[in-house]
Prior knowledge:
66% helix
Amino acid sequence: MKKYILTLSVVLGMTCFAQAQSNKVPTATEIATKNIQAMEKKVKINATQKSIIYNYSLDVAKEQVALYKKQQAGQYSEEDLPKFYKLQNQTNNSIRNILKGEQLAQYDEFLEEQLRGVSKKKKKGKANKDEEEEVVTGISGLILPTSTKTSNK
Length: 153
């Protein structure tokens, strides 16, 4: 009886571990939908523009998923990434042709945000719109403040 319970618990443990380790790859439609939803928050688009842009985003998402699967299968080649970037650039240009006036500026701002990623303040939920974080560039950003030096006792 002990062996039976031990075997059952080991099998259940391995099953739970295997399910926890499997990462679900989003489908192309999920990626395209998420992209359109994020874009709608930043760029005011009408229903026709939304459907056209969704189709462009879906094409890019299909290529993205295919590229990911190629990488996982070990069939990735150096020419695949430049082809994908070229498709992305063509799609961005096609989307720019659909947008008008102020939408173009909003779209460019949206793309910049996408390239930058989510800031640490937004991740933590402590974003304050009035305060901007000071960005230090160059060698001065590497210098430690004098208050953090440790004293030898």
